[in-house]
């Protein structure tokens, strides 16, 4: 990895997934195959890697397991295959987060890129009018926050290099796909051009909208998330820092007109 996530987790290429150090816990990974995600793609009949990505939800240091459960927080790790999905980059399915029973909110998510190049795409609404749309370009060590309720997907921006990232999530995580799938995807499709660069095409199933392409925001004042230090280590130093993920109302004023 190009960035130390702050605990002993390692990427495995064959089969795609992770291994964990002696002081860490983690599940057997779930994989998403191309056939699992075709409904989210611009061209559902495309070719691509058979296993598109592997997910390990609920990883971390063993000594933190109890406090993570108490705070309803969960740390997840995802690694992508290299390559393309037809003329699209490898990416997750567009989705929103289901509302958690303990907070009543569709929770936010805090991403940290470990290796590769990422674009975190997000739009305000999974509706005919998607509202504001952002493509946030991020590299190893960068942090990107997706606010509550927003539809989003994580995109590999470099087909030649596998993307790997971690994220703080609500422990009652769940993904809702229906509103995105019935519009054949999110409001903007990422495509890979002949030079291997990402270009964007509007999805005609939405009202016309602008796509804002940008670097990650500085969250040090709004959410007290520092730079350089891994977000897992920031939790280790201050276990309350990411409580807003499972209790979004703590930062209710931040989510108004949020810019990622």
Automatic annotation (TrEMBL):
Pfam families hit by this protein: GPI
GO cellular component terms given for this protein: cytoplasm
Gene Ontology terms for molecular function: glucose-6-phosphate isomerase activity
UniProt keyword terms in alphabetical order: Gluconeogenesis, Glycolysis, Isomerase
Reactions performed catalytically: alpha-D-glucose 6-phosphate = beta-D-fructose 6-phosphate
Cited InterPro entries: G6P_isomerase_prok, RmlC-like_jellyroll, RmlC_Cupin_sf
Domain of life: Bacteria
Family: Belongs to the archaeal-type GPI family.
Identification of the protein by name: glucose-6-phosphate isomerase
UniProt organism field: Mucilaginibacter hurinus
Highest classification ranks of the organism: Bacteria, Pseudomonadati, Bacteroidota, Sphingobacteriia, Sphingobacteriales
